[in-house]
Task: inverse folding
């Protein structure tokens, strides 16, 4: 039986717990080519089948809620807010999946793939797709602003320290102590109607700007604390001291020397924050202070469902499955990215 020889470095690596030592690739001329950092990250990430499956699901979801929702609307011949009186029976209970109802606007018979909602007999399938679009808009846009503000303040606090670090620390403590739900209720009751009407020409759903504002104000402190701790340790590294000795400006050091080392936590925590904001949007909409009807979101679809959970439980099942699968996919993606950037986290 043949055995493969190991170099001393490979043997030592296996003793300390390294999971794999891939052979170093060689060029056609026989020269050894070292793998770059991002190439190693990609090699580790693509071996995680669960993370790859999460990406496939998320890509499918984005296609379904953007071009897919518009295509479904064109094929079905009605929109997500169109009312079908025939979709409610004499007891005001909505019809079930694969039901045909009369469209009084066109005179045709339309198909309701997942049945109708329980209030006005609207298409549950289209409202699920368009609701997913709104929920993803809230989560993704909020994450972008939260990470932008958090990374900026955290990097400044960790690099400059002193009074800047003190101010950021006090702002963080105030933000953490402020009641988010109370602020959301106050904002929705005062400026909510004006903010909900801001859709940037229909690019965003009604109410998205309000939730993005709430999540951004009260969400930046989490990544700021993580980035501050990371920059605080990187500030003492030799490459930063060497850059200072060469006369590099603080802005250049942060942008060119520190930011590349922060990409791993930024990417990982962004995927995890998206999942939390999908749940947060669903919770606020369920309480009636999030996305307001008639605009659909997964949260207000779940808010309507408890009225029919004994008679039409599917109304609770469809948005519930959508929220669970989407948050699970983002969390599993975050776990896969964390393992890819730091393989020691699996030991």
Result:
């Amino acid at each position: 039986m043949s055995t493969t020889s190991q170099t001393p470095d490979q043997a030592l690596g296996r003793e300390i717990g390294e999971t794999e030592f891939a052979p170093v690739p060689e060029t056609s001329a026989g020269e050894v080519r070292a793998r770059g950092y991002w190439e190693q990250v990609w090699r580790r990430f693509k071996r995680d089948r669960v993370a790859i499956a999460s990406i496939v699901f998320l890509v499918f979801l984005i296609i379904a809620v953007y071009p897919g929702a518009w295509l479904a609307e064109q094929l079905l011949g009605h929109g997500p807010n169109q009312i079908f009186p025939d979709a409610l029976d004499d007891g005001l209970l909505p019809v079930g999946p694969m039901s045909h109802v009369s469209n009084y606007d066109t005179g045709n018979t339309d198909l309701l793939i997942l049945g109708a909602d329980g209030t006005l007999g609207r298409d549950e399938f289209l409202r699920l797709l368009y609701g997913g679009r709104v929920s993803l808009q809230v989560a993704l846009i909020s994450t972008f602003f939260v990470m932008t503000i958090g990374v900026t303040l955290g990097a400044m606090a960790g690099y400059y320290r002193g009074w800047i670090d003190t101010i950021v620390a006090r702002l963080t403590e105030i933000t953490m102590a402020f009641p988010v739900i109370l602020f959301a209720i106050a904002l929705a009751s005062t400026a909510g109607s004006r903010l909900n009407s801001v859709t940037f020409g229909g690019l965003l759903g009604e109410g998205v700007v309000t939730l993005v504002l709430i999540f951004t104000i009260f969400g930046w402190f989490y990544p700021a604390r993580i980035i501050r701790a990371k920059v605080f340790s990187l500030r003492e590294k030799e490459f930063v001291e060497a850059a200072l000795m060469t006369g590099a400006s603080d802005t250049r050091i942060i942008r060119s020397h520190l930011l590349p080392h922060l990409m791993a936590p930024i990417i990982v925590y962004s995927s995890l924050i998206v999942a939390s904001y999908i749940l947060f949007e669903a919770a606020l909409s369920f309480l009636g202070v999030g996305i307001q009807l008639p605009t659909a979101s997964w949260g207000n679809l779940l808010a309507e469902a408890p009225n029919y959970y004994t008679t039409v439980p599917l109304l609770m099942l469809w948005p519930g499955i959508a929220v669970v699968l989407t948050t699970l996919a983002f969390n599993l993606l975050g776990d896969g990215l964390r393992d890819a950037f730091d393989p020691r986290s699996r030991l």
Summary: The longest strand covers residues 99-103. The mean pLDDT is 84.
